[in-house]
Amino acid sequence: VTEAGTVWSGSIKSTAGLAVLLSEGLGDTLRVSLTGNPVEEVRVGWQILASLGLRRRGVEIISCPTCGRLEIPIEQLCHDFEQALAHIDHPFHLAIMGCAVNGPGESRQADIGIVAHHSGDVRVYRDGEFWQKVNYDDLLPVITEEFNRKWEEAKTAEGMQEAG
Question: What pTM did the predictor assign?
Answer without folding.
Answer: 0.80
